[in-house]
Amino acid sequence: KMEKYIIEPPEPVTTYWYKCNNEFYVEPLEHMIEERDVYGVAVIDRNEATYATLKGKKETILGHLTSGVPGKHKAGGQSQRRFDRVIEDLAHQFLKRIGDHMNEAFLPLKDDLKGIIIGGPGFTKKDFYDGDYLQYELKDKVITIVDTSYTGEEGIREVIAKSADDLENLDVMHEKKIIQKFIKELIKEKGLASYGEDEVRNNLIIGAVDTLILSEDLTSMRKKFTCSGCGYEKEITVKTQSQADNLEERCPNCNEMLKEDSSEDLVDELVEKAEEMNATVEFVSTETEEGTQIYRAFGGIAAILRYHVG
Questions:
Q1: Strand 233-238 to strand 221-226: parallel, antiparallel, or no bridges (unpaired)?
Q2: What pLDDT was estimated at residue 15?
Q3: Res 24: pLDDT
Q4: pTM
Q5: Distance between CA 79 and CA 74 in Å, rounded?
Q6: By C-alpha distance, which of 258, 263, 261 is closest to 241?
Q7: Has domain 171-305 been given CATH number 3.30.1330.30?
Q8: Mean pLDDT throughout 280-309?
Q9: CATH topology of domain 36-162
Q10: Staple 258 to which of 40, 123, 173, 225, CB 3.0 to 4.6 Å?
Q11: How far apart are CA 120 and CA 109, in angstroms?
Q12: Do 171-305 and 36-162 have the same topology in CATH?
């Protein structure tokens, strides 16, 4: 049979590529769904500044500024001191201009912004961070300041490369914090913790879930089986298609064999229910001890609740 699916990418497709092959070229689409977190990146020195966003593997340059601050003045005496004051004032105005532009660019993203990285050669980047140039909510999101050899777009790439460990550690710490909060609620007598597929699904349906925690290693499928005789429906979770093919479920009404009607990834089904109820979704890896515990002890499905469910 012929099947047709229309898929709208989560972001605009900016890559144009003509390829003759026996398979689809979907790498740019894969990159879009790999990472949702956004980081702000800036590289600053006394002469210029560039600021950008980093989302997954995609860096987007948002702006580039030049200062016009003159170099050292060779004159001496009063003229030298007066000129130094002029230079310092021009440098201050340039840092203020950088802050204004970054505030304008990053403040609309602050709810999705996981952190800001600042880099550059020399001490100007530190002067910028120490001063009151960034809005306080953005300044609190600065996670590291790094030295670079370059400015401009090349400097942005250097900042990202040098901050790789910090970004990875930030993700790990965020994951640990979420799981520790779940465990803390779990050990309380009336804690706001829920785990296991059926229990979490029921809590999602009634809107009790605040944060849904899913293991990245979940591969199960949620399948709907239907009776061709009376229309009876039953949903079953299976780990493999082979397991689904070997199911011998009969209709409780007319004893007809149930046939598979539809299928979707278990993760997609749970995420969809979470989004309908405005619950936050957190994916955790099995590369940490806490993430492995969620997968092995709780089946890879857990939740932090909005209120206690008796």
A1: antiparallel
A2: 63
A3: 80
A4: 0.55
A5: 10
A6: 263
A7: yes
A8: 91
A9: Nucleotidyltransferase; domain 5 (3.30.420)
A10: 225
A11: 23
A12: no
Q: How many CA atoms lie within 13 A of 252 on its CB side?
A: 2
Query: And the tokens for 85?
Result: 């004051």
Enumerate the domain spans of the chain.
36-162, 171-305
At residue 22 the predicted structure's pLDDT band, cuts being 50, 70 and 90, is confident
Give the Cβ contact number of residue 115 at 10 Å. 19
What does the pLDDT average to over 242-263? 85
* Neighbouring residues of 162: CB distance < 8 A, sequence distance ≥ 6: 119, 146, 147, 148
Query: What value, to the nearest 5°, has the Cα angle with vertex 167 and ends 280 and 306?
Result: 15
Mean pLDDT of the chain: 87
Q: How many residues does the chain have?
A: 310
Closest CA to 163 of 35, 40, 287: 40
What is the residue whose two structure tokens read 């230079």? 87
CA 76 remoteness from chain centre: 54
- 52 CB burial (10 A radius; 0-12, 13-18, 19+): buried
The string of pLDDT tens digits covering residues 40-92 is 999 999 999 999 998 866 788 999 999 877 765 555 555 777 777 888 888 89
- Are β-strands 142-147 and 113-120 bridged in parallel, bridged antiparallel, or unpaired? parallel
